[in-house]
């Protein structure tokens, strides 16, 4: 049997430096836990555009389809702001999501005890928070047709289309119910059924799937604007939230900040099972490429390392090893290790990206 395969796409900005820390962690599991992976690396985003004139080369796309999991850093940067829309770095990421059909995007928002003070909300509102946002990732207004900027009379009109089929709603609803059963058995579905037909259909289909297949799970529905308010008012009322592509983009950023820093949040994007039973999968931190701090060793590698923990859990059936890694990160934070994004008081000195990686390796060693 060959080792499971991972394609690493570090991308732009802080992507390469946080991914370097993930590579150390991957090697650690190979050396110390007998969990070896075949790791290859390629380009995505602006760096791919610089080399190939496209943010995702066809060969890279083909590789991504073949491996057991893709780990992505981040894409984009000011250098690429004026590129034509079709070759912007983000298109590389969106093509991966679409062509791998990664319809279920898991974005956990978990508040580590050591960081409860960093949230912009009161400590008791966020302490112990553990929610999971499931964002539909391959449809909706991100991909709907017609789209474009057209001329109408003497002015331009920008057009995007929100479009969801029943089967697209049903499959992401199922993934939310399945996950809820492994957690606190509660799903809240968010849409705008008060103003959008696609929202009415969303609500109906989620309810139908629930009644037919998951009556044991507690289901509620909420308008997405109210959901945004509830997320900052009383986030602990939620367990699993399921929502569409655009609302999920926005609500997951809000949820991320509840935990104190965007530098802490991982994500998994999962599709249908492949022939070997593993789901098509891409793992990436929720944070972006942060060009303002790129290349300075300031970035927090934890979101990217936690994304690898999600890969251990969801692609490689290594839940215990995922927990080992998450516990190591928790221990390092409890000991006071802080990258610059996690500093509260003036006078504290941050550690660098690679020092954080090393501290996590040390905590992993201590776990043996
Ligand atoms: C995200 C990002 C992306 C999105 C961008 C980079 C295309 O904001 O993953 O949340 O809008 O989906
Ligand atoms: Mg986003």
From TrEMBL:
The keyword DNA damage does not apply. It catalyses: (2R,3S)-3-isopropylmalate + NAD(+) = 4-methyl-2-oxopentanoate + CO2 + NADH. Its cofactor is Mg(2+); Mn(2+). Mg(2+) binds at residues 225, 249, 253. Its main location: cytoplasm. One of its GO terms (molecular function) is magnesium ion binding. This is 3-isopropylmalate dehydrogenase.
